[in-house]
Amino acid sequence: MVDRTSPSGGPQRPPLSAASLMLRLTGIAVVVGAVAAAFAYVHGTFDPQRLTPKALVDVLEKNNGVHPGFRRNHAKGVCVIGHFESSGEVREYSSAQVFNEPRTPVVGRFALPAGNPYAPDNSVPIRSLALRFTQTNGQQWRTGMNSMPVFPVGTPDAFYQLQQAQSPDPATGKPDPTKVPAFFAAHPEAVPFLTWVKTARPSASYATETYNSINAFYLVNSSGQKQAVRWSMAPMARDSAPAAAEQGADFLERDLVQRLAEGPLRWQLNITLANPGDPVNDASKVWPDGRKVLNAGTLVLEKTQPQLSGECRDINYDPLVLPSGIEGSEDPLLAARSAGYADSYLRRTSEVSQLPATRQEARP
User: Fold this and answer.
1) d(CA 230, CA 345)
2) Residue 200 belongs to domain spanning
3) Helix (H/G/I), strand (E/B), else coil: 205
4) Any idea what the CATH number is for the domain that residue 153 is in?
């Protein structure tokens, strides 16, 4: 929260032309919410003139439509069940049990960004993975990761402005195609994200994607020493698959089910240690290459469950639900994600009864 190759391990597509890039940016604007289901200041208790959780979730609903019972972002997904096997390599940096015990149970969720649970899987180039690790002491570690390497902006307000830029114009019912390019022109911090967008492509499988924390956190050891980190889940499955466009609208879940029928899927948890001076509180800034990377262990996923009846349905993957030994940084997007997730969670859980019975059991 970086793999410059295509998700299947093949060569990248050539860069887009300037005109094609602007068109793509208009369509991808809502996608950049992949890191956060909604952003706002914590609990919305600050100055009412500032951004609140309600305001941002409202704009996501305006842009995506309201689909009762579904998440306001990352609406289309699938539950996964498995465990984490610690390598022991992080013990000197963190007292968290997840890094000190041999095995920790995991409930996760693969998903697409944006708020339409019926969107075609190849409509966006980003995939996400959220995980809940439950330690033997009852403490939990929840994390939401995404296939993009960096966030486009560094503040909740800027993210909100981007959402507003791609809101439908009441006169036409469609977004103004000039607003998103104008937004990015006024936000030079988005250059690393835009550089990634030029060659980003929808992956053919959740199983071959790398997922990044994007935000920074701190590992804290038993002596109270802190180390700033970012992490990523690197896939151990690298085989290619047919082109996404040839697999229909819902190929990602089908592919995942088929792969798991043949055996567990694995990812290596890589934790990157920041050097002094690396930006810790700005998710729009990348860290230079050459940083020390720890192999924290292996994520093993064993089965899927439908998202509307599986264990992941009622989990709020709040990134600030952390066990002793892991702490959040002062990145404003982290506190914002926490507040926004809570607002979205309350809305969708109050609507579950509105789902038709067929939808409650179906895989969207």
Assistant:
1) 26
2) 18-361
3) coil
4) 2.40.180.10
Structural domain includes residue 175? yes
pLDDT digits (tens, 9 = 90+) for 71-127: 777 778 999 999 999 999 999 999 999 999 999 999 999 998 877 888 889 888 899
CA–CA distance, 323 with 34 (Å, rounded to integer): 24
How far, in Å, CA of 49 to CA of 88, rounded?
Answer: 47
| DSSP structure class, residue 307 | T
Sign of CA dihedral 321, 35, 99, 288: negative
Asked if the model's pLDDT at residue 192 lies above 90, the reply is: yes
pLDDT in tens, 4-21: 333 333 333 344 444 444
How far is residue 43 from each of residues 28, 166, 176, 316, measured CA to CA in Å?
28, 25, 31, 15
Total number of domains constituting the chain = 1
Q: Given the residues 43, 67, 74, 83, select the one marked as catalytic.
A: 74
| SS3 state of residue 31 | helix
Q: What percent of the chain has pLDDT over 90?
A: 52
Check whether 270 has a pLDDT greater than 70: yes
With a CB cutoff of 8 Å and minimum separation 6, the contacts of 173 are none
3-state secondary structure of 344: helix
Asked whether residue 108 is assigned to any structural domain, the reply reads yes
Identity of residue 57: V
- Reply yes or no on whether the pLDDT at 301 is more than 50: yes
How far is the C-alpha of 75 from the C-alpha of 23, rounded, in Å? 24
Helix 53-64 to helix 156-165 angle (10° resolution) is 30
Q: What is the mean pLDDT of the chain?
A: 81
Active site residue 187: no
Q: pTM for the whole thing? A: 0.80
Phi-psi region of 114 (alpha: psi -120 to 50; beta: other; left: phi over 0): left
As a whole number of angstroms, the distance between CA 161 and CA 55 comes to: 11
